Amino acid sequence: MKLQVRRGLVSVVGEQSKEGRETREGKRVELWRAFTLPAVIGLAVLGIAGVNFANGLAEQNRQMGPEPVACEVVPRAGLAPEQGALFGVNLDWHAKPLAAFAKDLGHKPAVSVSFTGFPLTSKDEDDLRRAVEQIRADGHMMLLTLEPHEGLAAVTEETATALAKDLASFNNDGVPVIVRFAHEMNGSWYAWSQQPNEYIAAFQTLAAAVHEHAPGSAMMWAPNYGGGYPFAGGQFEAKPGTPGFAALDTNRDGVLTMNDDAYAPYYPGDEAVDWVGMSLYHWGNTYPWGENELPEANKFAEQLTGNYIGANGDDSLLPDFYGIYGTQHSKPVAIPETASLFAPTGGGEAELAIKEAWWNQLFNPATHQQFPQLKMINWFEWDKTEAEVKGRVDWTVTNTPAVRDAFTAALPDWFRYGPEQPCQPRS
C-alpha cells in the first residue's frame, strides 16, 4: 500500500486503497497454480553389469542435484537474520509468477507479500495454500497482510485460532509467515482506522493465538508513515468526543495535529509485536504526483527517523520510528513495501535515473551501518494505473532490461535470499 499526503488532504493510492479500486473480492490475492517438484525418471538398464548400473545411477543422482531436505519449522525468533536484511517482493502475480521474478533477480526472494481479507474464507485458504506451494519452490517466507474489512470486531478468539492453525500448517510445509495485521491503522481510510483501543485489543488477541499455535509465524505492527498525520478528511477519521479521539490526542490540547504522536497510541506492546514495519516510497518531490523527479538525498533515512524536511513538507515533528521501535523496543524493522515512481507519460527524469537514485539510498552500505535493526526490504514490483497520477506508473525493476541489469548489479552483499533448494514437506 502506498500513501502520500499533502497537508490537510488524504490521497491514498496502490492496489489496496479505496476510491477507484477494485471490489473487496478483487483486492484479495489472486494466486497462480502451485509448482510441483520435478518427477524422478527411473532408469531402465538392460544388458549392463551390476557395477555399471550402480555407476550410472550415481551419475544421474549427481546431475539431478541433492535430495531435498525435509521442511523444518523455523522458530519465530529465528526469522530475522542475525546479520543483514531479507530481500523480498510485493509481486503482481497476474503479470509474473514468482519463479520468473526469481530468474530475473538471480535469487529466490526471501519474502513474498500477499494480501487477504480477514476472517479467511474457504477461497482465501485455498489461495494461500497455493501461494505456500509457490513460495516453498521459488522463495522462502510469506508476509501476509490481513485486512479486516468488516471491522475489528471480526477478530475473536475463534477466528484468531482458526488463522493460527492455518499458519501452523504453512509452517510445517516449510514456509514461515509474518502477519502484517490491519496495516496503516493510523490512517483515516480503512474500517480499522484510528480506533486505537479496539485495534490494540484485536492485535493482542490475534498475536496470542499465533504465538500459541504457530511457532513458525510472527506478528508485524506496521503503521503508515506519519507525514500529514492525522490525515484529516478520511472516511474513518476519529471524531471529537469519541474514546479513540481522546486516546490519539497525546498532547491533550483538544485537537489532532502533527503535534500528536502518530504511532505510539496504536502500539500493541512488546509481548504482542515481533516485528515493526513501515512502507516508504518515493512518489516525487511535489504534489500533485506524476512528474518524474529524482528523490532528494537522504530522503529514505530522514523519513525513517522522523527528520525529513524537504519538498514533500516539514515532517520534523514526527517521532523517530526506527530509534523508538527498532532500537528502544529492540524489534526487527521492515520496509514491507518500497519503490520509486516512474510515470511513462509524465515527462521529467529518465526511469533508470529515478529508480537507481532511490535504490542506491536503500542499498548504501551507510544504510546498513546506520540501521542494523533493518531486517527486511521488499520491492513493490507492479506496473499499474494509479488513481493519484490518473495514469500508469511503472514501479518495477525487472521488466526493463537496462533497469534490471543495474538493479541486480547493485544488490548489496548484506541482503539475504531464499534457499537455492526447496525443502520437502513431511508426509
Notes on the protein architecture:
The protein is α/β, with parallel strands linked by helices and 427 residues long. Helices cover 30% and strands 17% of the residues. The strands form four sheets. An eight-stranded parallel barrel has the order 3-4-5-6-7-8-11-12, surrounded by four helices. A two-stranded antiparallel ribbon has the order 1-2. The chain has a two-stranded antiparallel sheet with strand order 9-10. β9 and β10 (313-314) form a beta hairpin. It is globular. The chain starts with a strand and ends in an 11-residue tail after the last strand.
Question: Can you lay out the helices and strands and say which pair or pack?
Answer:
Elements: E1 2-6, E2 9-13, H1 24-27, H2 50-64, E3 85-91, H3 98-105, E4 111-117, H4 122-138, E5 141-147, H5 157-172, E6 177-181, H6 196-213, E7 217-221, H7 243-248, E8 275-277, H8 299-304, E9 309-310, E10 313-314, H9 321-328, E11 333-338, H10 351-363, H11 365-370, E12 374-381, E13 383-386, E14 391-394, H12 401-410, E15 415-416
Parallel strand pairs: 3-4, 3-12, 3-15, 4-5, 5-6, 6-7, 7-8, 8-11, 11-12
Antiparallel strand pairs: 1-2, 9-10, 13-14
In short:
This protein has 427 residues and is α/β, with parallel strands linked by helices.
